[in-house]
Amino acid sequence: MGANLFMIFWVLAISGFSSGQVLNCVDTQADSFCAAKQTAGFCSLQYYQDQYCSKTCNPRCATARGDPPPLTSSNVTNLINDVIKSSFGNVTTFKSSIMASILAIQNLVDQIKLQLQPVVRVDCVTQDKNIWAGKYLALCPANCNNLTIASLKLWGFIVYTGDSRICQAAIHSGTLNATGGLVKIEKTTGVQKYFGNTRNGLTSLSSTFYPSSFQVKPAV
Description:
Blueprint: H1 2-19, H2 28-39, H3 59-64, H4 73-88, H5 91-116, E1 119-121, E2 135-140, E3 156-157, E4 159-161, H6 166-173, E5 181-189, E6 193-194, E7 198-199, E8 202-203, E9 207-208, E10 212-218
Parallel strand pairs: 1-2
Antiparallel strand pairs: 2-5, 3-4, 4-10, 5-10, 6-9, 7-8
């Protein structure tokens, strides 16, 4: 008999929870206190686990009132996915948008850095060792590959000696063509050996140690 009564009570309790009906709380005073605390903002979504409510609220009453379920990692994940889908359509589109934003920000940072670098107007015979800046933009004139205008003084490849001519190194490396233009120069420390070769109509020579070096890179 006792077991049957227990089963009846259990079925009624489950029915009450699923239908959203308000159950009669065992301690109506405590339940009212908890509801007031929740309204006042003292209790979180999982308020019956909150320090203000855990000892005073009846979780069964909270469930019957239709209060929000406890906040779990699964709920948070679902909430985030719902927000992403409503804003971007799907997670893949969201990731693509984030990557595009990161690339745009990086491009903006690069542009700002570029604006902060000094611009040096050079000629076909200017050597890097005569420029004080560690990083700078060099504005080369046209026809620096014409050896009747400037004799070839060029040692190395990729990394050039500090006494190499900047614009000739820019053409040799392929960063610049004969029409001239803007290139970025970055000074580096000297190396023990520089290897020459022929590229883009100019031949650089090999060299032993030189105390300073530079590299030529695109301006943007």
